[in-house]
Amino acid sequence: MTTAATGSGRDRVIIFDTTLRDGEQSPGASMNLEEKLKIASVLEGMGVDVIEAGFPIASNGDFEAVNEIAKRVKNSTVCGLSRAGRKDIDRAWEALKPAKSARIHTFISTSPLHMKFKLQMEPEAVHQAIIDSVSHARNLCDDVEWSCEDGTRSDRDFLCRVIESAIKAGATTINVPDTVGYTVPEEYTALMRFLIENIPNSDKARFSAHCHNDLGLAVANSLAAVIGGARQVECTINGLGERAGNAALEEIVMALRTRPDVMQFETGIKTTDIMKASRLVSAVTGFVVQPNKAIVGANAFAHESGIHQDGMLKHAGTYEIMTPESVGLNRSTLVMGKHSGRHAFRKKLEELGFNLAENQLNDAFGRFKDLADRKKEVFDEDLVALVDDTVAHD
Ligand code: KIV
Ligand code: ZN
């Protein structure tokens, strides 16, 4: 399945968000119905193409959440996960039926390790289960995704055979997950390319990447898969997910947007909603975003060192490769600390409403440096107190 080039001439990459399914599988991240509905609504508003809303057979709560999201979401495809059994698939379809655009996502493991120890099935039985499950799902729904769990540790010849069968049985998306975050970018590019080039009728399905972050490579691997021919990436807000998490939506989207010169693809994501989505997911799950997290961390657009602050005040492009506004932040923050210089100090005071004479500024700057040696970060309130003190002593 070729992805139509967009108005810009660049190929479109489908963003499949699984915050509500794989993200929720993160220990301690479970969400109630109300919270899931809020997140689904923000995902829809920001232009996510496919929202994986849950795993309907897992619990009545999951069923209800997928069903409610299916009823309410109009601008994104709503997807439900199921194992390879008919009961799972039927339950997923029952939850998804009200959706304007629905997708059944069915999966089974294909790696020797998983087939032998987890499934305790012979490869040929797994192959037959793939044909049966995908055919059954396709009889219910036009949009069927099939995933070969632990795809990156599967035998290539076996993978080619079962993917060919899944496409023949009606799968419209073929997802090749790096379930345990094991692959590296070059290997994943090569795997995607090999599958797409060697499987008969591979053009009848869209290939998809689904990366976990066990080695911290989930985003790099997702981008590598796109280079290899994948046109869907599966990801979560803030990189939420099992163990070390999934590929972070905001990082993939901003990488594609920031480097169109080397990554000639685009997404339909309204990037200015990224901070809103990040804050909501963090608030709902209680998972704090680490300060130095790319794109959405509190320090992602903060500048403390004097040299950087000075550069920023002259031209923001000196130390920012994207604008904070582009991800929904008002402006970058000058963080005042012991590395800050006079230029940034003066600017910060002006922002706080102080226009000091030169001698006052010198005095205040000296006091600020003493304070910054004692404190990691000097907050606005500290500066206000410090300036009040300076003016009082004048
Ligand atoms: O990581 C994985 O393999 C999955 C599949 C169910 C798609 O989440
Ligand atoms: Zn996963």
Largest sheet: 8 strands, parallel, barrel
As a whole number of angstroms, the C-alpha radius of gyration is 25 Å
| Molecules bound to protein | 3-methyl-2-oxobutanoic acid, zinc ion
Number of helices: 14
Supply database-style keywords:
two-stranded parallel sheet, alpha/beta, 8-stranded parallel β-barrel, 394 residues, binds zinc ion, elongated, 44% helix, binds 3-methyl-2-oxobutanoic acid
In words, what does this structure look like?
- This protein has 14 helices and twelve strands.
- It starts with 10 loop residues before the first strand and ends with a helix.
- The strands form three sheets. Strands 2-3-4-5-6-7-8-9 form an eight-stranded parallel beta barrel, surrounded by seven helices. A two-stranded parallel sheet has the order 1-10.
- It is of the alpha/beta class.
- The protein has helices at residues 33-45, 60-72, 86-96, 112-119, 123-140, 156-168, 185-198, 218-227, 249-258, 274-285, 306-314, 342-351, 358-374, 380-393, and strands at 11-12, 14-17, 50-54, 77-82, 102-109, 144-149, 173-178, 206-211, 232-235, 265-266, 302-303, 333-334.
- The protein is elongated and about 85 Å long.
- The model has no long low-confidence stretch (mean pLDDT 94).
- Zinc ion binds at residues 22, 177, 179, 210, 212.
- One of its GO terms (cellular component) is cytosol.
- Mn(2+) binds at residues 22, 210, 212, 246.
- One of its GO terms (molecular function) is acetyl-CoA C-acetyltransferase activity.
